Amino acid sequence: MNDVVVCRPVARVHSRFTEVTGMPIQSAGVPQELARVEVFAEFAAGLRDIEGFEYLLLFTHFHRCASEKLEVTPFLDDRTHGVFATRAPARPNRLGLSIVQLLKVEGRILHIAGNDMLDGTPVLDIKPYVPRFDVRATERIGWFADRLDALPTIRADDRMA
């Protein structure tokens, strides 16, 4: 069995956020926050027909998160949780997921809203958001249930460094 997985970025985020401290923690909390995603030239053909989608799933690498932890105190709580029960960036493989609104496409540039990513964030993959595939109705959302109302006001700090 091969335990090595190699991913190469297909794009890079251009964002007003240059530091982790003070940035949004989830795209749903900042639906009007704008950014651009620059798709690299060798992947430009993969953008064909993307303008037909209102939302995209961006799979990213938390390139500025230096630590990997199995237990974290997430930004929305003051208690520790197992990292797999959180959306914290200090995790094995440092993979991120952002659901963003696609506003327009200009060549290899995707103009998006709902940005919760740092400037320079590597994008590993882009997929269309399709509600029938991606939405599940559920009432069981663990410890998040009592914390979601705070989402629009919570910002990242240095606890994941």
Tell me, briefly, the overall form.
globular
CATH topology tier name: Elongation Factor Tu (Ef-tu), domain 3
Q: What is the beta-strand fraction? A: 25-35%
Main pleated-sheet profile: 6 strands, antiparallel, barrel
CATH class: Mainly Beta
**How many angstroms separate the termini?**
32 Å
Q: How many structural domains are formed by the residues? A: 1
Low-confidence stretches: none
Strands side by side in the biggest sheet: 1-2-7-6-3-8
| CA radius of gyration | 16 Å
Decide which structural class fits the backbone: mainly beta
CATH superfamily: YaeB-like
Helix amount, in percent?
under 10%
What would you note in describing this structure?
This protein is mostly beta strands. It has a single domain (11-131), classed as Beta Barrel (Elongation Factor Tu (Ef-tu), domain 3). It has 1 helix and 8 strands. It has one helix spanning 131-134, and strands spanning 11-14, 34-39, 55-61, 71-72, 81-82, 95-106, 109-113, 122-128. The strands form 2 sheets. The protein has a 6-stranded antiparallel β-barrel with strand order 1-2-7-6-3-8. A two-stranded antiparallel sheet has the order 4-5. 24% of the residues are buried. The model has no long low-confidence stretch (mean pLDDT 92).
